[in-house]
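RECORD TYPE: inverse folding
INPUT: structure tokens
STRUCTURE:
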């Protein structure tokens, strides 16, 4: 690989890694794994000669790009939003104002702890790098300064907005009484938990926001983030997680494939490996290659009243060209050379070979024969037996 090709693979791994992060957050990895398993099944079907199954899977791959766009439209949208936020970081920051800081963490910890002690339910959303506007329904715009009295008054049971979510962006309360999309998780994480937890997890599956949930039934505090819903053991742990999130929500804190990242090295290695595989199969293996095969000659029946006495040669060399990947499962026995014998009377005749005599697999192109003609000898039926040199 040249330096440019290596750079191409590394740069391609970046959006693949971003997609994998979103797949993990939205728990769509099983769909991605299903596509990978389908690819393995296709290779196995070709190796075992299961042509009908291979054709069926190949038809599936013909629409795989469309399927990926439909299945992963939310993850793709999040990825492109993240790119826009980082490219337009300065403008994004001016529009949103300064980000939340240490005093805001203390306000949130104090509010959540107080509400949990009083068994008052609450749902607080901290916006991350991507916009939440398309995920929010209803709500009342506020643009108020973040404080304990403000949050406690919103979630007071006598308040009309206490059942909705409060949205905090740039250190200010921007909206309250918002409705969030519910999670469709079926792994049991929402068992014995209410609608607030389902809404918090639903938003965490669709965005990079952090959702802080206070249960009014149990007086517990939970955090939904990156598609996961986990309880918070104590105020110190809550303080740590909020501080980490607010520090990471700055769009200028861009993590690259070379950084530590909270998602670990596994996803990064997988993204790089997938990018390398894509380069190999789509670029390297699409290059035009040439190969030769020994193909048996099959002739048509001899004209009426004649029999075939001699055929030479019995095999010819055929040179084919095509993408490297088109040669994966091609063998000489898969090729057929069918030559029609002319009604030219007894004796020897030379029959030139043409590309139309050859049945080619899809994706391959004929180049030349060696030799480019065959010789057949006919004799009238009923003549004296002769030594035959005809391949059965």
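DESIGNED SEQUENCE:
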């Amino acid at each position: 690989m040249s330096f440019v090709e290596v750079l191409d693979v590394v740069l391609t791994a970046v959006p693949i890694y971003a997609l994998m992060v979103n797949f993990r957050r939205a728990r769509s990895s099983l769909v991605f794994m299903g596509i990978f398993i389908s690819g393995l099944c296709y290779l196995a079907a070709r190796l075992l000669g299961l042509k009908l199954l291979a054709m069926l899977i190949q038809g599936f791959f013909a629409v795989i790009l469309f399927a990926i766009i439909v299945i992963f439209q939310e993850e793709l949208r999040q990825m492109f939003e993240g790119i826009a936020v980082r490219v337009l970081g300065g403008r994004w920051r001016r529009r949103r104002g300064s980000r939340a800081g240490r005093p805001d963490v203390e306000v949130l910890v104090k509010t959540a702890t107080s509400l949990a002690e009083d068994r008052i339910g609450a749902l607080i959303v901290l916006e991350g790098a991507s916009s939440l506007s398309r995920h929010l329904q209803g709500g009342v715009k506020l643009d108020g300064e973040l404080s304990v009295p403000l949050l406690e008054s919103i979630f007071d049971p006598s308040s009309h907005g206490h059942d909705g979510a409060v949205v905090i962006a740039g250190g200010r309360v921007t909206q309250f009484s918002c409705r969030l999309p519910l999670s469709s998780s079926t792994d049991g994480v929402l068992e014995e938990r209410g609608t607030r937890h389902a809404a918090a997890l639903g938003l965490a599956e669709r965005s990079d926001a952090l959702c802080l949930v206070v249960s009014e039934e149990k007086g517990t505090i939970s955090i939904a983030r990156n598609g996961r819903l986990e309880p918070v053991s104590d105020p110190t742990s809550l303080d740590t997680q909020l501080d980490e999130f607010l520090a990471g929500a700055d769009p200028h804190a861009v993590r690259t494939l070379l950084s530590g990242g909270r998602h670990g090295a596994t996803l990064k290695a997988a993204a790089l490996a997938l990018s390398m595989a894509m380069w190999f199969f789509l670029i390297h293996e699409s290059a035009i290659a040439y190969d030769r095969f020994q193909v048996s000659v099959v002739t048509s029946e001899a004209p009426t009243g004649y029999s075939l006495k001699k055929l030479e040669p019995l095999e010819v060399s055929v040179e084919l060209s095509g993408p490297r990947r088109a040669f994966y499962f091609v063998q000489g026995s898969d090729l057929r050379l069918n030559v029609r014998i002319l009604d030219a009377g007894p004796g020897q005749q030379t029959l030139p070979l043409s590309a139309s005599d050859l049945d080619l697999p899809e994706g391959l192109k004929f180049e030349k024969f060696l030799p480019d003609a065959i010789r057949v000898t006919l004799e009238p039926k009923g003549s004296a037996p002769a030594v035959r040199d005809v391949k059965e």
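NOTES: The mean pLDDT is 77.
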